[in-house]
From TrEMBL:
Signal peptide: none annotated. InterPro entries: GHMP_kinase_C_dom (IPR013750), GHMP_kinase_C_sf (IPR036554), GHMP_kinase_N_dom (IPR006204), Mev_gal_kin (IPR006205), Ribosomal_Su5_D2-typ_SF (IPR020568), Ribsml_uS5_D2-typ_fold_subgr (IPR014721). PANTHER family: MEVALONATE KINASE. Pathway: Isoprenoid biosynthesis; isopentenyl diphosphate biosynthesis via mevalonate pathway; isopentenyl diphosphate from (R)-mevalonate: step 1/3. GO terms for molecular function: kinase activity. The gene is mvaK1. Residues 231-310 form the GHMP kinase C-terminal domain. Keywords: ATP-binding, Cytoplasm, Kinase, Lipid biosynthesis, Lipid metabolism, Magnesium, Nucleotide-binding, Transferase. This is Mevalonate kinase.
Amino acid sequence: MVAIAGEDLHGVHEGYGQTWAKAILMGEHSVVYGHPALALPLHDLQMRAWAQPIASDQEPQLSALDYEGPLSESGELFGGLRRAVEVTLDFLGHSDQRFSIRTESDFPAGRGLGSSAAASGAVVRALLDAYDVRASHEQLLELTNQAEKITHGHPSGLDAATTSGELPVELERGAMRTVQLRGNGYLVIADTGVAGSTREAVEGVRSRLEAKPEVVEQLLESLGDQARSAIGNLETGQMEPLGASMNQAQELLNALQVGHAQLDALVSAARSAGALGAKLTGGGLGGCMLALAANESDAQRISEALLAAGAQEVWTHHMVA
Ligand code: PMV
């Protein structure tokens, strides 16, 4: 319990919330046009948030990424996070209570790993915890998605669901379902260190679709087919065909012009080191890639190859039933 001199806190105390990163395994870009996508929660890459109640004459502060200062002056990058504070306090009926917010993350922002949804989700949970209030799963998603609307305009909801959920999530035409994995594999995720803009990538695909509809529709269709078969392979535990689908998807995404030379370099390093498949993940034009490894020692070898090929950071995720 944090005491504030001279103020009656009505039982409010410092709150804590935790979420994690996500990675899109298959279906980025084609999901925008109604095909399925699958995203995985990466439970080891955590986002932690603390909400500290402060007196009504104090200025709420934010400490997040490399920002340290008044919450109200934290700029566009933190617009979603500020919205998360606002909607959660409204939900709690405590809009007048002020909080300072601190977040800490195990993974970088702006690389397609779901940092904005994870931060908003963790802040929502920290504020609820400050009042010892438990919200339903739907309420938590709704509050996080309110914040995501500021960051992404029209969020699909996939990031909010996977950065706080236990299971992989499939999204198709706005409908989400959790997917039960069979079998065993390792995903090695690597950051190119290049910031790719998802908005720019999505707009680029749209303008190419308008310019050459037959060609681009066919690419999107094929990406959708690969995502569909990959999801089937995950559910039956067939890792080799899953890897083959990932390789196919990478070619198709390059044909859509959302690739990047550094992504190609990492993808080919992973394949040479024995990956079953490798592709970019998320919007592309930089950001992260992921590789599928059959076992832990392959994953280790692939990680080393990725670092040697210039990856800024590498993480390994054990996919297990
Ligand atoms: O870069 P991310 O992880 O936000 O993923 C973008 C996925 C896209 O399919 C390219 C866009 C979208 O809104 O689904």
